[in-house]
Amino acid sequence: MKFKNKEIKFNIYIFFVLTAMVWGLVMSIMIPVSQVPDEYTHFEGMLASYGNKEILREDMDRFFEPSGMSEFNQGNLHPVDSGLYMKTGMESYSKGLFEYGLRPSISAIKYLPIAIGFYFGVLLHLPMIVCHQLGELTALIFYIIFCVIALKKMPFKKEVMLFVMLLPMAIQEAGSFSPDVVVNACSFLITAMILDFRVRDKKVGWKDIIVFALLSLWILIAKMIYVLIPLGIFIVPLDKFELKLGKKIELAAVIKRFKPVFIGLIILMVILVGYICRDFAYFKVLYACILQPGNTFSLFKNTFLGYGDLFIQTLVGSFGWLEIDVSLVFIVIFFIMLFYINVFQTKESIEMQESFTFKNRIVFVIISAAVFGFVLLSMVSWSFFLEGFDLDVPVSVMRSYLPRISYMLGVQGRYFIPFMPMLVSSLGRGNEVKNRKFYTAVQCAFYIGSMMYVIWLLDIRYWR
User: Fold this and answer.
1) What pTM value is reported for the model?
2) What pairing do the DSSP bridges indicate for beta strands 431-432 and 344-345?
3) CA-CA distance, 181 to 307, in Å (whole number)?
4) What pLDDT is recorded for position 249?
């Protein structure tokens, strides 16, 4: 495409920023406050982590209940009374930010992108609905910034990364009060950094390692089960690291020389962490599942057979309080599109994969499968809770719970989004695209069509 003798090239970064910002803002506004899956719980969690749960009571008494929002979570599929929604939402909180107080705990960091906007609104004594929208806006901006950096660092299959970043479910979470915005954004960036370290002809220094470690720590605090994703860094050869201690000691060379010792130390550290955390409910559930492989396998099988369609639906698109599902036709188109952009790649993308070996791909698949398994196992404790079982019991007692449940309840497909780039990037090198204009046009048409379709679904659900 030319304009005044200058060729206009498709810029994937600008396209992502514009699409994510427009789509994210529209979804944030069109999905009423507290209606994103688990958003009310996340809002409560954020206020608790910052030490001012009093705000929650004000929201409930003066905004959620009077506007009818709280009734939406009870299966009432009525549209929003826009006049009442705006009237109640335009009231301000009764106190200023410092009167409520800020006493953040360590868990507050997982809500940081949201808290910046929300508490800025409270500080300025803005209306409640504006405070909520500001929180969702700063979360969306954070998501976009981190995703752009990830796209730039992604050495190949950028289109696959873009596809995952623009998942309707991912965009819904990006403009909400969910800590998933942190988990998704950090996971995407970590995956891109690992691949960048592996295939690009450059050294990995202390600055890279520190950023990588901080992102991993953020994920650990936000949702511990995804901390396995950073383990992909072990596919990077030690020769690529340049980690000097003083003027003479090269840490990477020392590790390479005494590799068995360091491997032993890592194993010892894992065992030590497991021992220290042995009394945590999640670890007790994990130990119980490991000690009961037969029952655990049955749980996996029953869950897949009973809820496999729900996983797919909530991965692709299930909006509001899991009330608004995309159609089966859209889901089929979605997977065809994912297959298309993974099978066909640009020449540059294929060339960049030369040093991403078969063994590296196997490691990525294993990590993805492990995270997938841990996501499911994390829901075992929730299933125990729903059944009324006491979680403050020894592992020996918890083992007896497993045969008494049939499914892992509470799992949603959106929990699989963080490791999707790692998994899909490992599935083949792809074939060279012959017509780039057509390749780009198909993707643009898909994203624009998806955006219009989701907006239509939200409109007929909430506003008609």
Assistant:
1) 0.91
2) parallel
3) 25
4) 85
